[in-house]
């Protein structure tokens, strides 16, 4: 069983934002950077 990275990352960031709302900007920035990197990577299915 494999988990998609993006939904897990979104869930973790959402929980952290609820716990520490003042770090919202950092979490959003990290999420956007990771999402951008994953979007640039070619998907290869073997």
Brief characterization of the structure:
By secondary structure, this protein is an all-alpha fold. It has one domain (5-40).
Annotate the secondary structure layout.
Layout: H1 5-19, H2 24-40
Helix pairs in contact: 1-2
Q: Descriptors for this entry?
A:
70% helix, mainly alpha, 46 residues, 0% strand, single chain
Unreliable stretches: none
Order of helices and strands: HH
* Largest β sheet strand count, sense and barrel closure: none
Helix count from the secondary structure assignment? 2
Shape: flat
Helix coverage percent: 55-70%
Spatial extent as radius of gyration: 13 Å
Structure description:
- The protein is 70% helix and 0% strand.
- It is flat and about 35 Å long.
- The relative contact order is 0.14.
- Helix 1 (5-19) runs antiparallel to helix 2.
- The model has no long low-confidence stretch (mean pLDDT 78).
- The protein has one domain (5-40).
- The two termini are 16 Å apart.
- With 46 residues, the chain is mostly helical.
């Amino acid at each position: 069983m494999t988990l998609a990275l993006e939904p897990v990352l979104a869930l973790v960031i959402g929980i952290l934002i609820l716990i520490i709302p003042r770090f919202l900007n950092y979490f959003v920035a990290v999420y956007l950077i990771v999402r951008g990197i994953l979007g640039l990577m070619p998907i290869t299915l073997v």
